[in-house]
Amino acid sequence: MQTALQFGPIFIHFDRLLLGLWQTLQLSVLSIVFGTLIGGLGAVGRSFGPRWVSWSVAAYVELIRNTPLLIQLYFVFFSLPLFGLKLSSNVAAIVALSIHLGAYVTEILRAGIEAVPKGQIEAAKALGLSRYRIIRHVVIVPAVRAVYPSLSAQFILQLMGTSIVGAIAAEELTAIANNLVMQTFRSFEVYILIAAIYFVVVQTASLVLAALGRLLFRWKV
Amino acid sequence: MSLRDFGPNELVYLLLAARWTILLALIAFAGGGVIGLVIAGLRVAPIRILRWLAGGYIQFFMGTPILIQLFMAYYGASFLGFRPDPWVAAALTFSLNGAAFFGEIFRGAIQSISRGQWEASTALGFRFVSTLRLVIIPQAVRLMLPPTVGFMVQVVKTTSVASLIGLTELARAATQINTVTFQPVLVFGTVSLIYFALCWPLSLLSQHLERRLATGSALKVPKPLMLAA
């Protein structure tokens, strides 16, 4: 029976952990960018689109938010090849993660848009602003600012969510950890170390997002 | 090509596997609720070190992926000389993880109750635990309810991750059936619908409670940051 934690055999493979971390960050950043684009379009379609668009977006949001990310990953990874779309594991992971995040971002932004006071829009109309400029400057920018904390929390969740894409053989930090376990047999030590890495990355990402928020929304209303 | 087709037997297999998803979610809910209440109590306790410890607990469970927590519980058992068991690891992890989120929900509700209630209780000679139990929590329950039900949706969905340490619940049953039938659209479509049937009513209930309980009160529980969904 082993009694002491031994991190030595793991540190030899530090370069692979770094690679895994890099892949995790890539998955996160790419899926956050695409997911936010989907969410932006979704929110605009939900709030300002014709009824059939609004309803379709609502169905998408409800379907994604009420099913597990893991099942969405499996669905994308196993089903798309049947339609002639052969995706590598990592691309399939990015597709599924983006679709997943898109639903949450849609819902967060929609809540923000709905929270914009009606009087503010009426005032903009009275000033003769065009519909486009009202939607952009009077609704969307204040809405995004209002929901920015929720948005960054969702991005952090996305970062941690990438840990399960190893289930479809995509490569990232957790998948590398699983490989290291098989090589070194120091399973507990590996996961302690990985947990520490995620913790540091999550805290750093929170700080970066908070700083970004101050930068983006630094003017006073 | 495939070993068998997706038929009634496979559907029944999936539906039966959903029992384990429900059971795990209930364990997480019960365990997480009880421990979460303690965590919330510690978070508002008059002793700084207790608040600090509970804060660290929440930081850890909210700041690392639940899959890693599952692996730690699973392999930690064998490190300590026990035989690793997916059910024990999953029950433990989901309860402890849920407790962090419930703790934040409960704390938010508790802190929404005005300070005057605390002062009045102190003036009447109540101690901390009695104040919390007899004065604050009964008032905070209606505020806790919507986010608690909403978090249940998260719990049901997250139990799918337990399939990755080999616990046979709905998600793992789905991959098993997919391997033998190779009809992923049908298999994962069906499984999505089963999860949806479990989660959607809870989502609707949460929204309903939020609208219903919010009326007649200016109080609103701030959602924990990590629960922004």
Automatic annotation (TrEMBL), chain A:
<comment type="similarity">
    <text>Belongs to the binding-protein-dependent transport system permease family. HisMQ subfamily.</text>
</comment>
<protein>
    <submittedName>
        <fullName>Amino acid ABC transporter permease</fullName>
    </submittedName>
</protein>
<keyword id="KW-1003">Cell membrane</keyword>
<dbReference type="InterPro" id="IPR043429">
    <property type="entry name" value="ArtM/GltK/GlnP/TcyL/YhdX-like"/>
</dbReference>
<keyword id="KW-0812">Transmembrane</keyword>
<feature type="transmembrane region" description="Helical">
    <location>
        <begin position="190"/>
        <end position="217"/>
    </location>
</feature>
<feature type="transmembrane region" description="Helical">
    <location>
        <begin position="66"/>
        <end position="85"/>
    </location>
</feature>
<keyword id="KW-1133">Transmembrane helix</keyword>
<dbReference type="GO" id="GO:0043190">
    <property type="term" value="C:ATP-binding cassette (ABC) transporter complex"/>
</dbReference>
<dbReference type="InterPro" id="IPR035906">
    <property type="entry name" value="MetI-like_sf"/>
</dbReference>
<keyword id="KW-0472">Membrane</keyword>
<dbReference type="Pfam" id="PF00528">
    <property type="entry name" value="BPD_transp_1"/>
</dbReference>
<feature type="transmembrane region" description="Helical">
    <location>
        <begin position="91"/>
        <end position="113"/>
    </location>
</feature>
<keyword id="KW-0813">Transport</keyword>
<dbReference type="GO" id="GO:0006865">
    <property type="term" value="P:amino acid transport"/>
</dbReference>
<feature type="transmembrane region" description="Helical">
    <location>
        <begin position="25"/>
        <end position="45"/>
    </location>
</feature>
<dbReference type="GO" id="GO:0022857">
    <property type="term" value="F:transmembrane transporter activity"/>
</dbReference>
<dbReference type="InterPro" id="IPR010065">
    <property type="entry name" value="AA_ABC_transptr_permease_3TM"/>
</dbReference>
<feature type="domain" description="ABC transmembrane type-1">
    <location>
        <begin position="21"/>
        <end position="209"/>
    </location>
</feature>
<feature type="transmembrane region" description="Helical">
    <location>
        <begin position="134"/>
        <end position="157"/>
    </location>
</feature>
<dbReference type="InterPro" id="IPR000515">
    <property type="entry name" value="MetI-like"/>
</dbReference>
UniProtKB/TrEMBL annotation, chain B:
<dbReference type="GO" id="GO:0006865">
    <property type="term" value="P:amino acid transport"/>
</dbReference>
<dbReference type="GO" id="GO:0022857">
    <property type="term" value="F:transmembrane transporter activity"/>
</dbReference>
<keyword id="KW-0472">Membrane</keyword>
<feature type="domain" description="ABC transmembrane type-1">
    <location>
        <begin position="18"/>
        <end position="206"/>
    </location>
</feature>
<feature type="transmembrane region" description="Helical">
    <location>
        <begin position="20"/>
        <end position="42"/>
    </location>
</feature>
<dbReference type="Pfam" id="PF00528">
    <property type="entry name" value="BPD_transp_1"/>
</dbReference>
<dbReference type="InterPro" id="IPR035906">
    <property type="entry name" value="MetI-like_sf"/>
</dbReference>
<dbReference type="InterPro" id="IPR043429">
    <property type="entry name" value="ArtM/GltK/GlnP/TcyL/YhdX-like"/>
</dbReference>
<keyword id="KW-1003">Cell membrane</keyword>
<protein>
    <submittedName>
        <fullName>Amino acid ABC transporter permease</fullName>
    </submittedName>
</protein>
<keyword id="KW-1133">Transmembrane helix</keyword>
<feature type="transmembrane region" description="Helical">
    <location>
        <begin position="185"/>
        <end position="205"/>
    </location>
</feature>
<dbReference type="InterPro" id="IPR000515">
    <property type="entry name" value="MetI-like"/>
</dbReference>
<dbReference type="InterPro" id="IPR010065">
    <property type="entry name" value="AA_ABC_transptr_permease_3TM"/>
</dbReference>
<keyword id="KW-0813">Transport</keyword>
<keyword id="KW-0812">Transmembrane</keyword>
<comment type="similarity">
    <text>Belongs to the binding-protein-dependent transport system permease family. HisMQ subfamily.</text>
</comment>
<feature type="transmembrane region" description="Helical">
    <location>
        <begin position="87"/>
        <end position="106"/>
    </location>
</feature>
<dbReference type="GO" id="GO:0043190">
    <property type="term" value="C:ATP-binding cassette (ABC) transporter complex"/>
</dbReference>
<feature type="transmembrane region" description="Helical">
    <location>
        <begin position="54"/>
        <end position="75"/>
    </location>
</feature>
